[in-house]
Design brief:
It is a single chain. The chain is of the alpha+beta class. It has two domains: about 45 residues, Orthogonal Bundle (Arc Repressor Mutant, subunit A), CATH 1.10.10.10; about 180 residues, 2-Layer Sandwich (Alpha-Beta Plaits). Helices cover about 40% and strands about 30% of the residues. It contains eleven helices and twelve strands.
Length: about 325
Amino acid sequence: MTDKTDKLILFELLQDCRQPASKIAKRLRIPQQTVTYRIKKLEKDKIIKKYTVNLDYSKLGFHRHSLYLDLKTVSAKEVDVYLAKITDIKEVSCCYMLHDISEWKIYISVWTKTIERYDEIQTKIITKFKKYLVNYLSFQSVKSYTYFARRLNPNAKAKVDIKSEEDNINLKETDWKIIQKLKSNSTISYLDLSRSIKTSINTVIRRIKFMQSKGIIQRFYPILDMNKIGYTEYTFISRIDPSKSKDVDKFIEYIKKDPRFIIVIKAVGYVNLYYAFLVEDSKELKEIMGNIDKIIGKATLEKHKIEVETMVS
């Protein structure tokens, strides 16, 4: 079980997992040894699953597409093998197996520069899964706000990653190599990173700072098992009446103020709203669902509950 101190440490790691333990200790006013010990224990207990990086691909001229597949029985291993053959890692950013209670069984996030390229990738994926496919759903993100688990310390100001403004920054091949390493382990030292991609440590530091300054790298953070911390995540994708845009704007303002919400995405497509939140119990769930219904209930034409089982890649 985690306690308040664990949650405060996790909150700090979610803001920047590359920051030194001494900085976290100073901010929380606890011994550095305590911070180091607890982080190692959180890793051992698999509460911290891995360390990765949050990227804003829109700064590189990419558009985010979400693809949901409803499949007959298929293993995570088969999915991983299929996806490895479908496209390169620069465009497929992640894939999740969803819980059996979800209508959709797989979620794939794809970033492309053109709708034609996305259509090509989507067609390849659907074709590859043809013998398993029951149905699919796709939409494109317009603007998103990502807070991660700010409820771990609701009294502190949490970072928010906003994806909306497009740019067309060109990255060097070295940058992509750095990104790949950081996605696998964002706590890797500059020295180890430079050795792994066979370049100088100064080049690594300079390129990471460049990508941060341009908003390409938004944050270094840990992926957490929220269930082990005592929270259940609820995610919904909804089809909202386009004429009720003011209700959606009001809903987003509500989310900004409620630390239990971890992400909201405005989108275009068959469904046009995605949001997720964390609750401790059924009482909280009932309260939040009631608030959601008051704000966008009349505007909601269709709603799907999504529950993540595991990250595939």
